[in-house]
Write the structure tokens for this entry.
Amino acid sequence: MDSSEHDSSMPSSGFATGGDLPPGLTEEEVEEIQLELTKVDDEIQTLKQVLTAKERHAAELKRRLGISPLSEIKQNFTKGWQEIQCSSAYMRTSQTVGDLNRRVTSSNVYLTASTTLEDISRSEAYKKTQETLSQAGQVTSAAFSTMGTAIRNRLGEMSNLSMRHSLSMPAMRNSPSFKSFEDKVENMKYKVMGRSNGEGSNSPTNNDATF
């Protein structure tokens, strides 16, 4: 490579124009490193383009196979979980937890606590407490049931009384006593209205008195 090609392909930088060189490097070494960096950047860009094209092609193939993104996530999760279960760290952890569980269940403290709970459940005091609570619940339920029945009966009596009162009103209006009371009220109304209008002599009561 001649100097013209070398200068045209080399990226512009402060090192080529007499800038400060990195410690331990000559100007020629700096130029070579810059050329290598340019090649690597070009390769990275090419690989990105190839990767993008491959991803598009893979997505098209998955679409044709009917593989949705959700199913793909499930498959990846299942695969990852299987890999975790097969890992040595997971196996060691499972074994440690199993050993700890066996030690706890076989310890004297655990066995003593289990025995104590069984003894309590079989004791007379525990049985009496259960019976007392059961009886209290039955008494409370019976009290509520009795109160509900009394309320329903009282409401029924009030309804029947109201119905009888409604049925007896027409009979009362047709009775002689009620009619006599209505006549007296009418006569009193005529007297009051006649006196206020100065027509007391023409009222029905005065005519009746004349006759």
Remarks:
- The longest helix spans residues 124-173.
- The mean pLDDT is 76.
